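WARN retry 2 of 3 for item q-0093 after timeout on previous attempt; input resubmitted unchanged.
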Amino acid sequence: MSALTNTVSDSLVITRRNLIKVKRVPDLIVFATLSPIMFVLLFRYVFGGAINLPDGITYAEFLLPGIFAQTVVFGSTTTGASIAEDLQKGLIDRFRSLPMSRSAVLIGRTVADLGLNAISIVVMALTGLLVGWRINSSVPEAIGGFLILLVFAFAVSWMMALVGLLVRTPEVVNNASFIVIFPLTFVANTFVPLESFPSVLRTFAEWNPVSTVVQAARNLFGNQPDSVPVADAWSLQNPVLYTLIWAAVILAVFVPLAVRAYLGTAKR
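OK item q-0093 returned
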């Protein structure tokens, strides 16, 4: 119990340190929120008229859950870049010299970035309301929609933490993350219905966890009317369960790998 208490206490200290940095460098949160706002406006007013949707759903209601998912996934890459920056500046060595939990640095980083993602979602939700997006479900379901987005984002943050520890330069972390995450967020039901995809890409998109995060959010926000059919793939018929399975697997694999890489990096 003492070890667990120390881990929680140390993690909260690191989380506070990371959030104070955002407060002192407000450009971080400004640019983190400007990008999703730009995506919302561009896709809603520039591309929205060219995308055909089934009757019963507006493009704003189709789009916003996809923008939410894309933003939190891209926002999770901040974890890797921030850890790589701390390595460059020698902060990790300073943390290692302190009598603190070995996992506190990583937990504090991922929890702080989860908070930044939550702020981005709030800004996007307000922007979405202005362009016609509405929540058509109950309050508990809506809260569940936001939580499923944040749970998946938290899991992706641990993947990015490992990347940051292995790559060690923020620029390379950003480039490497973009190469992987960009196709995952676009080869999905994020912006267009899957019916428009070629068969091979459609199969990939149906089982892509980003698609199920989006579908889960649409269902929970009430943005998927009963009159609009969903693909027959089990993943999209059970998007909440499938997404939680992915999040659990990612955490089970990448949390110990990231902690191990942190210890190995600190010893060098």
